[in-house]
């Protein structure tokens, strides 16, 4: 999906962990703009790329481990996206497989953010 967005000349910003927060950097090339973070086993944008402010991001796509029928999501347990999405007023989309839908409501804490749109296949 990211490659298709880049090919269509759509601005793409990827997160990088900074302490307990997320910072988003603009990428233009998946092959050259990412570094592998061995601590978490994932690729993150290089810190030399342009940093974008939260207010400049129109759509955020969030990862989902599981989600319930009330559109609450289970992430990876550290609250990075919940902290980032606090006071974010633009579009948030969760992407998941239908198998990630759980039948019972997930346990919710006061800092958990409900995702208005979850797309599952």
State the shape: globular
Number of strands: 10
Instruction: Give the C-alpha Rg.
Output: 15 Å
Question: Strand pairing plus helix content: what structural class?
Answer: mainly beta
Please describe what this structure looks like:
By secondary structure, this protein is mostly beta strands. 10% of the residues lie in helices and 35% in strands. The chain has two helices and ten strands. The model has no long low-confidence stretch (mean pLDDT 93).
Secondary structure: elements and pairs:
Elements lengths: L1 H6 L4 E7 L2 E7 L6 E4 L4 E4 L5 E2 L6 E4 L3 E2 L5 E2 L5 H6 L5 E6 L20 E4 L1
Parallel strand pairs: 6-9, 9-10
Antiparallel strand pairs: 1-2, 2-5, 3-4, 7-8
Concise structural overview:
This protein is mainly beta.
Keywords, please?
single chain; 121 residues; mainly beta; three-stranded antiparallel sheet; three-stranded parallel sheet; 2 helices
């Amino acid at each position: 999906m990211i490659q298709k967005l880049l090919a269509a000349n759509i601005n793409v910003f990827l997160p990088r962990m900074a302490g307990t927060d997320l910072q988003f950097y603009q990428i233009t090339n998946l092959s050259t703009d990412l570094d592998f973070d061995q601590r978490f086993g994932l690729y993150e944008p290089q810190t030399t790329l342009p940093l974008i402010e939260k207010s400049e991001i129109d759509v955020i796509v969030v990862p989902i481990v599981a989600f319930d029928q009330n559109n609450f999501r289970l992430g990876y347990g550290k609250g990075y996206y919940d902290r980032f999405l606090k006071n974010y007023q633009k579009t948030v989309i969760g992407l998941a497989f239908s198998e990630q839908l759980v039948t019972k409501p997930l346990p919710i804490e006061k800092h958990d953010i409900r995702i208005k749109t979850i797309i599952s296949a």
